[in-house]
Give the backbone structure.
Amino acid sequence: MQKNLIPGLLALLPLTACSGSSPSPDQIRQQTADATAKLRTGAKAAAEGVREGWKRGHLVDLNSSSADDLAALPGISPAQAQKIIAARPYSSTHELVSRRVLPQADYDRIRDQIEVKPH
């Protein structure tokens, strides 16, 4: 049975090679542009993932972090970041709530991502 199968496959081989036309230079350019765009999107996503992973591994210090670092916390607006800075120094993270800098719900969202380092 294998003896009959091999000649049949060999007979079909030239048909598969001739069945399609070669792409035009414009088509090749477009395919290359599409592939490059996909790679760029993938690279951006990978970089964002690394950035998020890095942030998760490092806590944001309420007493020394920049407004941009504070505003990068989930649900914290630039105005809230400025309010956090204006109320410095802190001796504990919960002072954000007890001193009415942030509502409890906002604090609950970020409490695992913040710390207060002694000065």
